[in-house]
Amino acid sequence: MAILIVHSHVGTRQFDITEGQNVRDALDTTDWRVRAACGGVGSCGACVVQVESGGVSPLTLSEYQRISADARAQGWRLSCQLRVYSDTHIHLEHLAHTSVWHSIPTADLMPSPCKFREIGEYHYGVAVDLGTTHLRVTLWNRKTGQRIASRKGLNPQERFGADVLNRLDAALVNTDTAQELSRLVRNAIMKALRDMLAREVGEIRLMLPEIGLITIVGNTAMLALLTGQGYSDLLNPDFWQARIDCQPIDYKKWQSQWLLPNAKIIVLPPIAGFVGSDLTADLLATQLCNGTQGAFLLDVGTNTEIVLWTGKTLLITSVPGGPAFEGVGIRNGMSAESGAIWNIEQNENGLTLETLNHEPARGFCGSGLVDAITILVSTKVLKPSGRFAQPNGGDGYALVEGNSRTVITGCDVDAFQRAKAAIAAAMETLLELANMTWCDIERLCMCGAFGRHLNIQNAQAIGLLPPISADKIELNADASLAGCELALLNENGLLLFDEITANAQTFNLSLIPDYEERYINHLLLKPIRAETAHD
Amino acid sequence: MIEDIIKAYNEAVYETDKDTAFEVVNGALAQGMSAEDIIFQVVIPAVEEMMSLIVKDPDANLAQHFMTAQIAAEVTEKMLLLFKFPPEIIGRVVIGTAAGDLHSLGKRIVMGCLKALMVEVIDLGVNVTAEKFVDAAVAHDAQVIGISAMMVHTAMGEHGCAEVRKLLKERGLEDKIKVIVGGAPYRYDAELYKNVGADTWANDGVSAGKVIVDLIKEVKSHVTA
Ligand code: B12
Ligand code: FES
């Protein structure tokens, strides 16, 4: 990893950059994007930057064509051609307009599926993963199987509430709000698409009619609000395990609003009231059901979905375990952005806190919170019950003395305990229902952004993840997007989705008496017991 | 001797150490203390002590609430079996989770504490309709209806507490039966209980015990007066 130091008229910032990566790709994942109007092939010349010092790749042919000899002598380069090998300072005169859209780091995307369909016309396609907090969108050439671009941005419905129930409630109270919620997301998808076309293809108008297919996955509430279908059933416990029909009634309207006259729109169907098609997408991308042995899949988000593959059948449930892991309800909690403490190491000299982009610590993201609590327990500052050994009157404990951004309070620990207990107890309940034990589990896939930086040993030490060998645990942060892409590229995408969940059983944990008991036991901050027997 | 037992028991409860709590109780029985004395001199004062501590302690957390209630309820249940005469109960409460809500854990803590305080609790389960709350309260001659709601829409919704209030009014039961609510949404908005038509609320299960005991006394004084 090298550091890219960027100077611009608004200040100076540091970014991590993989050695050999080009500057445009690295910055495209941040909110400091360079201007661009081609796919980074050096043809538009919009992405110029000036290198001040550092170890970079030699000039390419397109840079000789696009940049004058004088400018080259002063260090001007095309950032899409400029690869960085060691810490480098650049000057970026023209930031692109600030946008809510950033591209997703390639390392986070799963490799593109390799089978492609025979496509006559309109061979571009768009995959959308519609999350409660974020939207992820990718643009594909379906004929060549090439992912042209990716974008990630905030779900604009957030202003109607961070959690799904608030948004459902808002929609139920007022049909205008319901329509607004749907419109907000449709606009966002359109903007992400246009941003990709403008920056990565350099052409919007001519490209729109070439798009032949859009596939959309998401949690049930998001799909219901998007399509305006079925959202009134979601709050009713009777529908928890039922399939909720949320297909758009008015495809034609969407097509004309999006200016996509030839795009077929497929909203991949959710499994049940609180189990969305993002979960089916995870299953496809991780190929969970291909093995003959037991495997778990967790998709940790605002709502955490949990699947047990027994080797023969699928058991599915969901718990509201998420917000704490995304920093919600934690005093110094934040999502994984610049300045978030994402990793904490303990050594002779004390603690080393690592923040994203090496910015001064602003708070903890989910993985940082897991590390912090684990360390507090292992150093006996916290007891396994979640109480501080030395009462601190609610002020909490600062991991770095005097730095209020590193404080963890008793309430934070409590919120974390509740969330992790909900998840751990759910996994154990599914195991019990299938008559299995942790020894039968050969694989555990952690999907969702929270898993990206997670320290597995720490998560096991405080009982969030089970006591199985760490090499059986896989972190697949963007699996649901990958599964959606599979549906986009596969001849029979919709069928894939139907097949995999055809025999799935969904369980509403509120109706399983043992769950309550397990939940209480799992509140303690200690490893999950290998045997599942309960008192 | 009794001081030592009380001290050891309180420590175990505060540290949420169920095994030690039971050891202390069994030790006391072995030393000849009666089940009645254990309840009235050790367990109930300990619950009361915990209430004041937990209320003052900003760090008290869910695990601790559960364990406290759990330990108190289990010890009480065990001791009640050993009582020479059936214990005299203070009053009766019907409790359940509001319609549409399946979160059962909150009321569990409340029930644990109430049992330890010698209040009889009739558990109506989860997803309880307003009709059922009122009918059950009348059938069991209960002084208090306790409604737990963990979600905003079940706390504020028209089929929850608001409808219970409506029914009580219609049937002229408002003096005989009081309504207490609890659950996460009420903790975020301390005035919410009024909007939904409850008589009162409690922030946590342990303090709910005291509030409910007071409510029962209030109703009983009305009725006898
Ligand atoms: C455990 C849990 C579950 C379990 C419930 C298991 C069970 N048998 O109860 C399961 C997994 C089944 C579940 C399901 C759902 N849940 Co849930 N759940 C939680 C969680 C993590 C803890 C809630 C809990 O039990 N707390 C324990 C109680 C004891 O804590 P407490 O509130 O502090 O209780 C004290 C006081 O309130 C008081 N009190 C409580 N009741 C009463 C009653 C009276 C009379 C009195 C006086 C006092 C009192 O005393 C208690 C003890 O001190 C919370 C999130 C959180 N971190 O709190 C979400 C949460 C409540 N759930 C939520 C949601 C959305 C759901 C689901 C819709 C999601 C899903 N995946 O299915 C379903 C809905 C099911 C339904 N229709 O009811 C949301 C509600 C959001 C909102 N805006 O309202 C929450 C807040 C999570 C979130 N942030 O999204 N859930
Ligand atoms: S030339 Fe670099 S992005 Fe177009």
Commentary on this structure:
The complex is a heterodimer of chains A (535) and B (225). With 535 residues, chain A is α/β, with parallel strands linked by helices. Chain A folds into three domains: 2-91, Ubiquitin-like (UB roll); 106-274, Domain of unknown function (DUF4445) (Nucleotidyltransferase, domain 5), CATH 3.30.420; 287-535, no CATH class. Chain A is 28% helix and 21% strand. Chain A has 14 helices and 21 strands. Chain A has helices at 23-28, 61-66, 69-73, 164-173, 175-201, 220-227, 251-258, 277-286, 366-378, 410-433, 456-461, 479-489, 493-501, 513-521; strands at 2-8, 11-17, 48-53, 76-78, 88-91, 124-130, 134-141, 146-154, 211-218, 264-267, 294-299, 304-309, 314-319, 340-347, 350-355, 363-364, 397-398, 407-408, 441-447, 473-476, 505-506. In chain A, the strands form five sheets. In chain A, strands 20-19-11-12-13-21 form a six-stranded mixed β-sheet, with helices on both faces. A five-stranded mixed β-sheet of chain A has the order 2-1-5-3-4. In chain A, helix 8 (277-286) crosses helix 13. The radius of gyration of chain A is 24 Å and the shape is globular. The mean pLDDT of chain A is 88. By secondary structure, chain B is of the alpha/beta class. Chain B folds into two domains: 2-80, Methionine synthase domain (Methyltransferase, Methionine Synthase (B12-binding Domains), Chain A, domain 1); 91-224, Cobalamin-binding domain (Rossmann fold), CATH 3.40.50. Chain B is 60% helix and 11% strand. Chain B has helices at 2-14, 18-30, 35-56, 62-82, 105-116, 130-139, 152-156, 161-170, 184-188, 192-195, 205-224; strands at residues 91-97, 119-123, 144-148, 178-182, 200-201. A five-stranded parallel β-sheet of chain B has the order 2-1-3-4-5, sandwiched between helices. In chain B, helix 5 links the parallel strand 1 (91-97) and strand 2. In chain B, helix 3 packs antiparallel against helix 4 (62-82), helix 3 (35-56) crosses helix 11 and helix 4 crosses helix 5 (105-116). Chain B starts with a helix and ends with a helix. The model of chain B has no long low-confidence stretch (mean pLDDT 87). The chains are: A alpha/beta (535), B alpha/beta (225). The structure holds cobalamin and FE2/S2 (inorganic) cluster. Residues 24, 36-38, 40, 42-47, 78, 80 of chain A line the site of FE2/S2 (inorganic) cluster. Cobalamin sits between chains B (62, 65, 101-107, 109-110, 146-148, 150-152, 180-184, 187, 202, 204-205, 208) and A (163, 165-166, 237, 274, 303, 318-320, 323, 415, 418-419, 422, 509-510, 515-516, 519).
